[in-house]
Each structure stands twice: as C-alpha cells, then as structure tokens.
Design goal:
single chain; alpha/beta; FAD/NAD(P)-binding domain; 2 domains; 8-stranded mixed β-sheet; 7-stranded mixed β-sheet; 18 strands; 27% strand; globular; Geranylgeranyl reductase; Geranylgeranyl_reductase; oxidoreductase activity, acting on the CH-CH group of donors, NAD or NADP as acceptor; FAD-bd; Geranylgeranyl_Rdtase_fam
Length: 379
C-alpha cells in the first residue's frame, strides 16, 4: 500500500509527489500521457513567484519580461515597465519534464501512459500498458487538470466557470521586454501576445464563448498564414469542497487558476504544498480524517485573492469598449503608473487594488465600472 498516490504529472502533481517522497512517504505518481509536458495547454508565462515555486533551473526559460502593454481596440495604450524581471516565458514541456524528474529523483515511483479511476476512499484502479491494477493507498492527491475525473467521481461539484483558450506560436517581431494584452480580442477576458524572443511570439486568447471565431479574427492581425494551434481549458472558481475521505484536490482540478489572468501554476503549487503538509500530519497521527485542514490552509493562503479575482472577472465581463478606453487613459497618469509598478503582483492583485481604490481621482472610473460595489467587503 502506498502512503500517497498523486494523479496528474504537471507541475502541481510533480511538486506534490516530490515533496511527499522527500518527507519519506511511499509515493506513486500517475500521468495519463506518454510524453511529459504534452499536449501543451498553457500560455507558458509564469510570474517570478510562480517560477520560484517550481524550484526548477532556468533551462526551460526562453525569455524574461519586465512589463506590459495594454492596448484597447481604439489604439489607446497603457505601458508599464518595472525595469526588473516580473515574469518568465518558458518551454512548458521542458519545465514539466524537469519537475517530473525531480519527483523521481526524490524517490517517487512514476507511471506514465496510465489512466487512473477513483473507486472509493483509499482505492483507485489504473489502466496501463501492463493491464488493469488496483492501487490501495492511504491518501490520494488529485492534480488531474480542469476536468478532473477524480474530483467528479468523488462528488465534489463543479467549477463556477470554464474558459476555453487558443494559442499559436508565430514569427512576430516585438519588444521582448513586454507582454501585450488586448481586451478587445475577447470581450469577457483578453487576448495576449507573449514574446518568446524578439522575433517570435505566442498569440492567443481565452473566453467563455465563440473562442474559435475570436481567435481567427485576432490572429489575422499578426499573420496571414495557417498556424498550428494549442487549446486548453481554464476553470475559475474553487470547488465547493476540495477534500474528501482520504482525498485532496489541487491546482486546476480544484479550480485554483487566478481569475484575473488564468494562470494556475502559482496557486496550484501552493496548494500542493498545503496538501502534502496536511498529509504528513495526518499520517503521522494515523488519522486520515484530518484532511479538512488542507482547505483551511489554502483558503488562508490565497482564498481571498481568488474571491477578489472572481469579482474582477465578473466585472470585466460587463465592461464596454468605452469603459476600457477611459480606464487606460486614467491609469496612464505617471503617478498611478508608479503605483502599478510598485504594488503590481500577478499572483496577488489585492494590494494594488486597495492602493488604487484609495485614489480620489479614480473614484469616478471605479463608480462607472461598478468596482466599488462589486469589491465591497473584500478590500
């Protein structure tokens, strides 16, 4: 019997497996795909904090960025530059492989091209190249992605929203210091241009509807040739409960991507750390019923930021093109740009929002877009 079974071999699952093995627990990591890191379902832009959480080398890093350009459909632009690295553009396949190897080096057993099915607390069945097998265990940590079969089988509910994303790597010359964000490309989220280098970029968008049509219109701004696209899903809004008997749900499977950006690495790995810490305490006390502590830990860590992010996401869906143009002009004031650079945090936007909400000259803007009412009680 394994102490820990981790389902899902992305950065979140690999971290959970590595930490479990390092804690001296017998650990099995199960990944359904034959090749680690494929298919790619991520924009590959990690904040500095998210990249640090990976505890990986910089071998997977293509580029670093220090700022962003937010460009409206009318051509108005908000540009800010921190002058230091704020995010990393990475090869997700290479990063995933390195993190999986770290889990194996720590002592975790790894099985790829293996499908897991949750049967009951303490038992999953797997289907791999050698056939079907029952895997008894003390605790399961599920990091099996946005459409988690483990969470669904355990009856842990659904996410509030499920976004669809499309992206393509194309030849495109741009300033490699800046990510571009285009709110007009996807009215309920945004489009992006992420520089891989000065000559190539990842162009994509996310949204709740008509994503294919939106992407086709957006990509034509940058290339007329056919492109190879990558697609993925982003769940927003945590499950109603992220634990059950002998089971904890982490990362995208739990609905932890940030609603303001769609990124899930930072919160996902933080959740993996909390899950392993909870598992270690439960197993040391021989009491697997203590897993409710996991939910307390992640909520104390980033639960408030997720709640704030969800309200901002819902507010974004109500903003008009005029609202965005006015916001860009208002936020382009030099003293406000300085606050954005000083307080901006891709993973924890609450502090910046609080600073901006204290500006009398922005009250008209916030009233126009309904931010004051939406965020009441969260800031």
């Amino acid at each position: 019997m394994y102490d820990i079974v981790v389902v899902g071999g992305g950065p979140v699952g690999a971290t959970a497996a590595r930490l479990s093995a390092q804690a001296g627990l017998s650990t099995l990591l199960i990944e359904e795909h034959a090749t680690i890191g494929d298919p790619i379902q991520c924009a590959g832009l990690l904040s500095s904090s998210a990249f640090a959480e990976c505890e990986a080398s910089e071998r997977s890093v293509y580029n670093t960025v220090s700022g962003a350009r937010i460009i409206s459909g009318a051509g108005d632009e908000l540009l800010f530059d921190a002058g230091v690295t704020k995010a990393y553009v990475v090869d997700r396949s290479a990063l995933d492989r390195e993190m999986m190897m770290a889990a194996g080096d720590a002592g975790a057993e790894i099985r790829v091209k293996t499908y897991a099915r949750w049967r009951r607390p303490g038992l999953i069945t797997i289907q791999g190249s050698s056939g079907s097998e029952e895997i008894p265990h003390r605790i399961c940590i599920a990091a099996d992605g946005p459409r988690s079969s483990i969470a669904r089988a355990a009856g842990l509910g659904r996410h509030r929203y499920l976004l669809s994303g499309i992206q393509a790597d194309i030849p495109f010359a741009s300033d490699p210091r800046y990510v571009e964000l285009h709110p007009d490309a996807s009215p309920d989220f945004f489009g992006w241009v992420i520089p891989i280098s000065a000559e190539r970029a990842r162009v994509g968008l996310c949204g709740t509807a008509d994503v294919g049509e939106r992407f086709n219109r957006f990509i034509r701004r940058y290339t007329d040739t056919s492109v190879h696209i990558a697609t993925g899903a982003i769940p927003l809004g945590p499950l109603g409960q992220t634990y059950a008997d002998r089971l904890m749900i982490c990362g995208d499977a739990a609905g932890f991507p940030k609603p303001t950006s769609g990124g899930g690495i930072y919160t996902g790995i933080r959740s993996a750390r909390h899950a392993v810490a909870t598992a270690v305490r439960a197993l040391e006390s021989d009491d697997e019923s203590r897993l409710s502590e996991y939910e307390d830990l992640w909520r104390a860590d980033f639960g408030r930021e997720l709640s704030l992010g969800l309200r901002l996401f819902e507010m974004r869906g109500k903003m008009t093109e005029d609202d965005i143009n006015i916001a860009i002009k208002k936020l382009s004031q030099p003293d406000i740009l300085r606050i954005i650079v000083e307080e901006g945090d891709m993973d924890r936007p609450g502090r910046l929002i609080r600073r901006l909400m204290g500006r009398p000259d922005l009250l008209t803007l916030f009233g126009r877009i309904g931010m004051t009412t939406i965020l009441r009680g969260l800031i």
